[in-house]
Write a structure and sequence with these properties.
Helix content of chain A: under 10%
CATH topology of the largest domain in chain B: Rossmann fold
Distance between the termini of chain B: 21 Å
Number of domains of chain A: 2
Radius of gyration of chain A: 17 Å
Number of strands of chain A: 11
Structural class of chain A: mainly beta
Shape of chain A: elongated
Shape of chain B: globular
CATH class of the largest domain in chain A: Alpha Beta
Order of helices and strands of chain A: EHEEHEEEEEEEE
Number of helices of chain B: 10
Distance between the termini of chain A: 37 Å
CATH architecture of the largest domain in chain B: 3-Layer(aba) Sandwich
Largest sheet of chain A: 5 strands, antiparallel
Strand content of chain B: 5-15%
CATH topology of the largest domain in chain A: Alpha-Beta Plaits
Radius of gyration of chain B: 19 Å
Structural class of chain B: alpha/beta
Strand order of the largest sheet of chain A: 2-3-1-4-5
CATH class of the largest domain in chain B: Alpha Beta
CATH superfamily of the largest domain in chain A: Aspartate carbamoyltransferase regulatory subunit, N-terminal domain
Oligomer: heterodimer
Strand content of chain A: 35-45%
CATH superfamily of the largest domain in chain B: Aspartate/ornithine carbamoyltransferase
Number of strands of chain B: 9
Chain lengths: 155, 302
């Protein structure tokens, strides 16, 4: 079994305290950064991408020092990184592991695929009800059309 | 507190629908009343829909209210590039209620979230048109005596027809069975059939109207438009299969009624108009009573 605390396994340096998000698809790393607003965080962040993953092709990993997420915040990345795993680190040790879960509603992340939807015409914050979690299907709060996994775009 | 709006038929509980239909029956008995005296209603029609607009304006006028508004976006500030957000925030200062028709889907929901007065969706693109659905329900209840255990035969464009989808969703609250009559290219979408299956409601699909018309309590006709066909040859083949003629009605149920959201083009032959089963013009009249009931309900007036 892989040990996240084994320095030989780590391509980016270990953190003393904070959150490690692993198993992000390499292709969606920057979307995850944007969704979590990591570009505006003041604490140390390191990330690695295009790392080999046994199960998911190329993966990415993010380590955020001194930052802990609420479930509601972290679940926002489920749309782009459905298999992401969180390791909560304190004193260089993993004290808790969490998985992300697609929330029941999605606000301000996804784009409605309907070109005739008001959210694609005016500055309206998109809102969706999640009608299926796997595969993801979102029902637009405004035009009531379904945006499915294939046509899902992150704003 | 946000005012109560009507954007989608799903915004209403079954009890609320029944209440509105009951109120509409009251207005039918006595449509001229001074309930809206001193009130101003805006009809904001960002795309033209003469029938719907006149029906709303008639409803307001008969109740003593005043109407202001525009009939298409070329005569409004939209042509100057004003956003819907700004239009609504401005107009809601002038009026007690907004009736809005807009080609963009979801625009009515958005307007209802911005507006300080109730918004009635009079059609947002291909999405919703709840007052049409309520007047259809009123017409069905009035002619059949009840909404329970009816057979509804929907004919024509069942793929893109907003009115048939809303009516199907609404009628599924009662024990309705459906026959869907449509050409291959315009069949009822799977999501609606799945919805009925999940509720345990029966439906049957055919391309032949004569096969099912005699079972119907209500025949709901819609227009088959040439633009809907990817292959114009297909349209030529099927266009006459979905036209109702008087001779097709001889074996139908005595109480059966034919509804149509109008405007009609040629899908109901004019020889049907004099048949007592033709109900589409009375249906349009029912629209006025139903809209009176909706307006008064949203404004909290009795």
């Amino acid at each position: 079994m892989k040990n996240i605390n084994d320095p030989k396994q780590l391509l980016v340096s270990a953190i003393e305290s904070g959150t490690v998000i692993d198993h992000i698809p390499a292709s969606t790393l920057f979307k995850v950064i944007k969704i979590l607003g990591l570009d505006r965080i003041k604490t140390q962040i390191t990330f690695g991408t295009n790392l080999d993953s046994k199960t998911h092709g190329k993966k990415a990993i993010i380590k955020i020092a001194d930052k802990f997420f609420e479930d509601d915040d972290i679940n926002r990345i489920a749309l782009v990184a459905p298999n992401a795993k969180l390791n909560i680190i304190r004193d260089y040790k993993v004290v808790e592991k969490r998985v992300v879960e697609v929330p029941d509603t999605i606000t301000a992340i996804a784009k409605c695929m309907n070109p005739k939807c008001i959210t694609n015409f005016e500055k309206v914050t998109t809102r969706f009800r999640v009608v299926s979690k796997k595969p993801v299907a979102l029902k637009c709060h405004y035009c009531e059309k379904i945006t499915d996994q294939e046509r899902l775009e992150i704003i | 507190m946000k005012p109560r709006s009507l954007v989608s038929i799903d915004d209403l509980s079954t009890e609320e629908i029944i209440k509105i239909l009951r109120l509409a029956a009251d207005f039918e008995k006595d449509p001229i009343r001074d309930i809206l005296s001193g009130k101003v209603v805006a009809t904001l029609f960002f795309e033209p829909s003469t029938r719907t607009r006149l029906s709303f304006e008639s409803a307001v006028n008969k109740l003593g209210g005043k109407v202001i508004g525009f009939t298409d976006s070329s005569s409004s500030s939209v042509t100057k590039g004003e956003t819907l957000n700004d239009t609504i925030r401005t107009v809601n200062n002038y009026v007690d209620l907004i009736v809005m028709r807009h080609p963009i889907e979801g625009s009515a929901r958005y307007a209802s979230e911005i507006s300080t007065v109730p918004v009635i969706n009079a059609g947002d693109g291909a999405n919703q048109h709840p007052t049409q659905t309520l007047l259809d329900l009123y017409s069905i209840q009035k002619t059949q005596g009840s909404l329970e255990n009816l057979n509804i035969c929907m004919v024509g464009d069942l793929k893109y027809g907003r009115t048939v989808h809303s009516l199907l969703m609404a009628m599924s609250r009662w024990k309705t069975s459906f026959n869907f009559v449509a050409p291959e290219e315009l069949r009822m979408p799977d999501e609606y059939k799945l919805y009925l299956r999940n509720l345990g409601l029966e439906y049957y699909e055919t391309a032949d109207l004569n096969e099912v018309i005699n079972m119907a309590d209500i025949v709901y006709m819609t227009r088959v438009q040439r633009e809907r066909f990817s292959d114009p040859m297909e349209y030529e083949k099927v266009k006459n299969a979905y036209v109702l003629h008087d001779h097709m009605l001889s074996e139908t149920k005595p109480g059966m009624k034919i509804l149509h959201p109008l405007p009609r083009v040629n899908e109901i032959n004019t020889d049907v108009d004099s048949n007592e089963k033709a109900y589409y013009f009375e249906q349009a009249l029912n629209g006025v009573f139903t809209r009176q009931a909706i307006i008064c309900t949203l404004l909290g007036l009795k």
